[in-house]
Amino acid sequence: MEAGLDDTPVFNPRSSLNYSRGNNVSSISDKVSLKKFSGFSSENGKNFLMEFESFCIYQNLTTDDRRVAAFHLHLSGPALIWFNSLEIPVKRTWFTLKNAFTEQYAKQGMFDPDMVAESAVFEALRLASSQPLEDFHSKIMEKGSRLQKPERDLITKFVNELPDQLAFFVRTASVKSFKDALQQAKLGEAYGYRSLSATAPMVAAVQPANSNTNQGHNQHLFSMLRDISHRLEKLEAPTSRPRTGRDRDLSTCHACRGPGHLKRSCNWTGHGSPKSQAKCQICFQTGHTAAECRMFATKKTVRNSEPKNRTAPGINAVSVLGSKNDVLNGADKCDIFQ
């Protein structure tokens, strides 16, 4: 070895594994493969960690060096960059490396951006008209397990996205597990309940927020229109009954044959012939004229019964008292002489 070269050993994951012909790990890997973890939001770090530990047990990777080396070989993309940026003490033991990986990729809270995105995708899942129920069931299970949803939430999501008739069939069965919900839905599909109503297309990604808002707004408008139509039918129901003979006669007077009033309130005096089209200018009833109105006859009688003012022949009140102006002028003159 030349002088001046650094003798510090370099970490090589492949050198930590035993690739001898007697214990060939690559041959075992061909039988039991583990997908590499890239660290994207669509991947589940917790599931990968559990699968990797099972992989280490199967391959008898018991030492820290062998586990760290195998873990390094199953990383790619952003996860591999994260691993290379770790300090050497963190990568020295499997315990410290596992804790660092859990903190980075497997420990996620409800406000984590990745979890928020996954939750939006879960809520946007819809059953397509030609999509198999098993495929939709598996997608809900995949997204729900990543979000650590309880089984009752998975059942509720699955049943709510089914067509109305099929969803009612599943609810009446009172399913106890997510698997039972799928079996009951397949049974209802065999009976033809799925084809009775249309379904919305499945959304594979996050939909814009306004699409759900518009759909809910349209449903609200339809419900309001139905409610208004029902109320109008109730209001029109009493007036839709057939009119009896008494109802038809209520608007016509039997005395003058005029419409709009009854005989007991008719003001026609009975003189002359009734005129059904004539309208009185005094009482505004139809069926007689003003000359034939009872109110006109009453006024005429009262006027004739009033006593007349008696004055001397040829003398009237104006000639005796004079005009109004003369009386006022005389009163003014009296005030002056006083």
UniProtKB/TrEMBL annotation:
Superkingdom, natural source: Eukaryota
MF GO annotations: nucleic acid binding; zinc ion binding
Gene3D superfamilies on file: Zinc finger, CCHC-type
Residue stretches making up the CCHC-type domain: 252-268, 279-295
InterPro entries recorded: Znf_CCHC, Znf_CCHC_sf
SMART domains documented for this protein: ZnF_C2HC
Protein name per UniProt: CCHC-type domain-containing protein
